[in-house]
Amino acid sequence: MLIVNQPAFNYLLENLLTGLGYPAELIISTDHLASAEKLLQQHLPNLILIDLSLDQTESIIFIQRLKKFHPDANVIVILAQHQTSLLFDAIQAGALGYIFHENTEAEMLNNIKSILRGGAPLHEVFAQYILSYPVKSNQTISSNPLNKPAHLTAIEFEILNLVATGLNLRQIAEQTSNSLYKIEGNIKSIYRKLASLKN
Questions:
Q1: Residue spans per domain, the chain
Q2: Fold category of 2-116 in CATH
Q3: How far apart are CA 66 and CA 72, in angstroms?
Q4: Rounded to an integer, what distance in angstroms lies between the CA atom of residue 10 and that of residue 121?
Q5: Are 102 and 126 in contact (CB under 8 A)?
Q6: Taking each helix axis from N to C terminus, what angle separates 56-69 and 84-93, rounded to the nearest 10 degrees?
Q7: What does CATH list as the number for 126-198?
Q8: Half-sphere exposure in the Cβ direction for 86 (13 Å, CA)
């Protein structure tokens, strides 16, 4: 399902999804959150792309409601690259990944593929933002007891720190002697832990 109010961008996303093997006739599109809610009562898509520029606050609430009733739905948010705090809110609401309006088609495709194979994307600025939140490795003591921290495994904490320094996920996989699949899976785990703090 595509929830996008820009026809050209909607067309681009439809092309990307059909390229991934989604039959065109099964791709549902709408440009309103209200109609999306009605459509979701009749259909249960495994992939939902939602443009947060529709209505930021309502979009976050929509994701929270959706994940409550359909916890296995793969929700990907679409937003501008500088909207880091909004992206964090979306991840806490239950989004599993994101694409930026500024991304190339190849970058969008890579992020969608990552999510569909059980992983999640992560870029430098967002890793830095997550680290500014009370997150900690299970091997350390929280320095900020007033805020409930996200308890990360040692590898999750290491991935955040390495991405924050500018390394891409392939470089991190090589440096940590892990598969790219495992690195992406750990990022998805980080996102789920952030979402659990909100619930």
A1: 2-116, 126-198
A2: Rossmann fold (3.40.50)
A3: 10
A4: 21
A5: no
A6: 20
A7: 1.10.10
A8: 20
